[in-house]
Amino acid sequence: MSLLIGILIGLVLGLTGAGGSVFAVPMLVLLLGLPVNEAIGFALGAVAVSALYGTLKNWRYKTVLWLPAAILTVSGVLLVSAGKALGNQLPEALLVVGFSLLAIVIALRMWRQAIRQPESSQVVRSGQIDPQLLTRPVCRVSPTGQFKWRLPCVGSLVISGLLVGLLTGLFGVGGGFLIVPLVLFLTQVSMQQAVGTSLFIITWVSGTGFINYALTSDQLDWSMLALISAGGVAGMFLGSRIAHKIAGPQLQRIFAMGLVVVSLLMLINQILFG
């Protein structure tokens, strides 16, 4: 079951442009019966490994925007531990409610994007890269439009990274649902570059969150984590084989509906058995 869940996590992560890793926590809670805090820790580890595989796979396409990625990654890593510490202090019921609401917001955004920007839903993390679509980043909040180490550009990315790190540590989400639109808005690059950059950031931020969880956990089932992570890589690989055939607005709407369903099921499970 752990391997199958990992494959599902990798598939969903690979077949979405943003928001895929949010499926991991409810699947671990509902199918493996893990407590929410434990599910968050496992999700961070599995997502980090899957994102690392995706980053290495796309390395040759040069889709990572290194300056924005570095700023978002460093600022995100700074608040992951704070988010995890906050999550440890909250009652499990409140954590489940907060996660479910966040997941539903992500699902609504995915649904809206599939309707209003159907072409963007065809750009997924396991998809093929078209080098002709890659562009140089600009800074939308800069008076000159150039991307340099200036306060408007750097400050916007730092604040965004801090928010991503806090939510990653708190809820175990990879942050792609925030990273992709932020990179698109602030740098005005192609969707492929935003998605590629998000994988790099997710690798480091989620990896940091998992390390924090591992250091504070008394009993970590490494064999379960290994199976989930191996399944995640297999899911990303499978996604790369089928993405060009099935990725699109219809699939994104299905993912959005599925995310709402599993989030509500997790909420109901907490109310009935929590």
Walk me through what this model shows.
By secondary structure, the protein is an all-alpha fold. The protein has one domain (2-273). The protein has ten helices and no strands.
Write down the secondary-structure element order: HHHHHHHHHH
Number of strands: 0
Describe the biggest sheet? none
Query: Percentage of helical residues?
Result: over 70%
Give the number of domains.
1
What average pLDDT do the residues reach?
83
How much of the sequence lies in strands comes to under 5%
Put simply, the count of helices is 10
Radius of gyration: 17 Å
* Low-confidence regions: none
Structural class: mainly alpha
Head-to-tail CA distance between termini = 22 Å
Could you say which overall geometry the principal axes of the C-alpha atoms support? globular
SSE arrangement:
Layout: H1 2-14, H2 24-32, H3 36-57, H4 66-89, H5 92-116, H6 151-171, H7 176-187, H8 191-216, H9 222-246, H10 249-273
Helix pairs in contact: 1-2, 1-3, 1-9, 2-3, 2-10, 3-8, 3-9, 4-6, 4-8, 5-10, 6-7, 7-8
Task: Compose a concise summary of this entry.
The chain has 274 residues and is mainly α.
